[in-house]
Every structure is written in structure tokens, then in C-alpha cells.
């Protein structure tokens, strides 16, 4: 049961004042007391706001009293004053509410009235709003969840489906499952660690130290360097940046005791096998941004022209960040840079150069022979 206060108010609910004549106030559309009234500007007849809007949907621009065109105005003040004197019985009187409310306070009361009904999601019965919380706390048809064993059951079935023994057995079962999962995860971690260690024994990081020193210019990394094809990847020597770009991230990106050469690219570069049927494992890369803060680096692994793996990392200015991936059976890696903002100490440069201090690519495997070809 829901309040009908969208349209007119039944005169049978009026409880005062005594001797008040209300028939002349009726809405011409629903013939009840007007609710939230508006009026026609021409004839000043009051209508329920809902009634007149429904009427106009079927009779555009036409007043029920035949005024043309219908122009809406506020309800005349004397009618508003008459309506405000009315005392109205609550719509939920039949459910037990004995409140008599002023016309102006009726809407607010009926929205909050404790005697309106709500449906229980457990037993599907209609329950008075004032009793609803208590009912929901005790309804035997409501589903509840045990905080200890997480079983879901109906409250009324507790003695059958959720005894103390059942709860303890379920907790024990979950602990066993969790233990099995932890053992499986530990074994998977151990196997992967052993595999990485086995590969690392036969893998030498690429640090570009064995490329010709170039103190006066940048150079492209030659194809077949380390048996790989390099696209849009260049390298330079530390001396070049100390002379040319003293405020860039290049000058701080060289690792202590490491190579004095460093590779770099802008926007996009790739590294791929040079021989058909060969595959490699991509272990890691150490990279940083040359000019920007929060530069985004997206690394994608390919196999037979299909994207197999993707990883995105945010790079720091001038501080190489190790990125461990361990992607197996690939024939190409692409690196793409984007975004970021100019570092305050970069001298105003705002470019997406990525510095690559080190690449670790595992043994080459020939798919035809399944043999390792160590670089």
C-alpha cells in the first residue's frame, strides 16, 4: 500500500476545521481536493499539478474550462490559504496510523510514516516500516553469512545447516584448501626462480659497452649486434652528454662501474631476432627518462607477429629503473614512450627519450632443433 498523493486528495480524509465547505475547491480533472495545485492564468481555476499535466499531454494548450491557450500560473493565494487550514488523516490510517496532519505537512509525514509497508526480501511478506528493522533481524527466511566459516544459510535453518560442528568442519576444510594453494604457489615460485637462475647462468646482460666509443655524435646500434635487429635504437658515450646536454637525465643515468655507453630511443623502438625460427627469453630492462618526469614506457612482447605480453611502467628522470619480466619464446620486443612532464632541471626539454642502460635477453632457441644458441 502506497500513498496516492500524486493526484487529488480524497475529501473523506478531511478532518477539519468543522463546517469547512470544500466541494468548491475540487480539481475539475480528478474531482478531488487539488494536490500541489497550479492554476489557469485565464480562469484561475486550480488543478492538481499532476492532473493538469496529464490533461495537457492529450489536449495541448487547452484548459479543461476551454480557455485557449492554457497558460500556467501559481495557485491563487486565497485558495492556498484555504487549503492550508485543512486537517487531513494520514493515508496509512487503515494500517494503524492515527495522525491528523496539516495539508502543508502531509507530504513530509507520509514519506516517513512508520505505517507504510515494505516487502521483506526473505519471506516476501509486507511489513510495516516501523517494524521492518526488527523483522529483518529475526526473519527466519533471511539469508545470513557466518563470519567464521563464510557459509550462507537461512536464519531459520541454523539448527540443521549451521551447527557448531558444521561451522568448525567448514573452517578446517577452508584451511586445508588454503594450505594446498599456498604450497602450490610456493612450488610455482620455486620452479620459476630455478628456471630464471638456470637461464641467467648462460645469459649475459647487454650493456652496450662493446660498441665503438663515439664522443662527438650519436650512432645507430648496428643490426646483428648481439645477433639482434635494432630499429630506431641509438647509442652514445657518456662524454657526449657531459659536453652537449649537461642538464639532461643522460648525465645521471650511467650506473657506477657500468658501461660508459648507453642506448636510447624516442617514441618507439624494437629489438628482434635476426634469424628465422629463433626465439629468446626477455628477462629485464633497466631504463629511465632523459627529459621528463613520469614518462610512460610500454613494453610489448611478440611471437610470430602476435602480441603475447604487455607491460607498462612509469619511468623516473635520470634514474635507471630495473624492470623484471621474464617473457619466454619471443621473437620481438617493442618499446614505446609517451606522456610525462618536463623535469625542472632538464633545461626546458620536454621530449619522450628513454635511456636503456641494460637489456637482458636469454639464450636464443632454434624452433627447428630446440637447441640453445648462446650469445
Overview of the structural elements:
By secondary structure, this protein is an alpha+beta fold. It folds into three domains: 11-112, Herpes Virus-1 (2-Layer Sandwich); 139-169, no CATH class; 219-373, Sandwich (Jelly Rolls). It is 22% helix and 32% strand. The strands form seven sheets. Strands 11, 13, 14, 16, 20, 23, 24 and 25 form an eight-stranded antiparallel sheet that branches. A five-stranded antiparallel sheet has the order 12-15-21-18-19, with no helix packed on it. The protein has a three-stranded antiparallel sheet with strand order 1-5-6, with no helix packed on it.
Largest sheet: 8 strands, antiparallel
Radius of gyration: 40 Å
- In CATH, the architecture of the largest domain is Sandwich
Number of domains: 3
Question: What is the top-level CATH class of the largest domain?
Answer: Mainly Beta
Q: What's the overall average pLDDT, rounded?
A: 85
| Strands, total number | 25
Q: Total number of helical segments?
A: 7
Percent of residues in helices comes to 10-25%
Structural class: alpha+beta
What is the end-to-end distance? 81 Å
The amount of beta strand, in percent, is 25-35%
Stated plainly, the CATH topology of the largest domain is called Jelly Rolls
Give the CA-based shape: elongated
Query: Could you list the spans in which at least 5 consecutive residues all have pLDDT below 50?
Result: none
Amino acid at each position: 500500500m502506497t500513498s496516492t498523493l500524486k493526484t487529488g486528495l480524497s475529501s473523506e480524509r478531511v478532518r477539519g476545521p468543522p463546517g469547512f465547505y470544500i466541494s468548491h475547491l475540487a480539481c475539475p480533472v480528478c474531482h478531488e481536493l487539488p494536490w500541489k495545485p497550479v492554476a489557469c492564468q485565464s480562469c484561475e481555476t486550480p488543478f492538481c499539478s499532476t492532473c493538469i499535466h496529464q490533461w495537457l499531454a492529450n489536449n495541448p494548450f487547452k484548459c479543461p474550462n476551454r480557455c485557449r491557450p492554457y497558460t500556467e500560473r501559481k495557485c491563487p493565494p486565497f485558495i492556498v490559504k484555504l487549503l492550508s487550514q485543512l486537517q487531513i488523516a494520514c493515508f496509512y490510517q487503515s494500517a494503524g496510523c492515527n495522525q491528523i496532519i496539516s495539508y502543508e505537512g502531509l507530504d513530509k509525514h507520509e514519506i516517513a510514516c512508520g505505517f507504510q509497508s515494505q516487502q521483506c526480501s526473505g519471506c516476501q511478506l509486507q511489513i510495516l516500516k516501523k517494524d521492518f528493522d526488527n523483522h529483518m533481524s529475526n526473519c527466519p527466511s533471511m539469508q545470513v553469512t557466518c563470519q567464521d566459516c563464510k557459509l550462507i544459510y537461512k536464519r531459520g535453518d541454523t539448527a540443521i545447516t549451521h551447527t557448531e560442528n558444521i561451522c568448525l568442519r567448514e573452517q578446517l576444510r577452508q584451511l586445508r584448501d588454503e594450505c594446498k594453494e599456498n604450497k602450490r604457489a610456493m612450488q610455482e615460485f620455486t620452479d620459476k626462480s630455478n628456471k630464471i637462475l638456470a637461464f641467467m647462468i648462460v645469459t649475459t646482460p647487454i650493456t652496450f659497452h662493446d660498441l665503438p666509443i663515439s664522443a662527438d655524435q650519436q650512432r645507430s646500434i648496428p643490426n646483428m649486434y648481439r645477433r639482434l635487429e635494432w630499429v630506431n635504437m641509438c647509442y652514445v658515450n657518456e662524454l657526449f652528454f657531459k659536453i652537449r646536454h649537461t642538464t639532461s637525465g643522460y648525465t645521471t643515468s650511467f650506473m657506477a662501474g657500468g658501461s660508459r655507453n648507453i642506448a636510447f630511443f624516442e617514441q618507439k623502438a624494437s629489438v628482434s631476432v635476426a634469424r628465422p625460427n629463433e626465439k629468446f627469453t626477455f628477462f629485464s630492462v633497466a631504463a629511465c627518462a632523459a627529459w621528463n618526469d613520469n614518462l610512460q614506457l610500454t613494453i610489448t612482447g611478440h611471437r610470430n607477429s602476435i602480441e603475447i605480453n604487455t607491460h607498462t611502467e612509469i619511468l623516473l628522470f635520470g634514474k635507471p629503473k630495473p624492470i623484471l619480466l621474464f617473457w619466454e619464446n619471443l621473437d620481438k620486443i617493442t618499446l614505446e614512450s609517451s606522456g610525462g612532464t618536463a623535469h625542472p632541471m632538464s633545461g626546458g626539454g620536454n621530449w619522450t627519450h628513454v635511456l636503456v642502460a641494460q637489456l637482458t635477453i636469454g639464450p636464443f632457441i632454434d624452433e627447428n632443433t630446440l637447441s640453445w644458441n648462446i650469445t
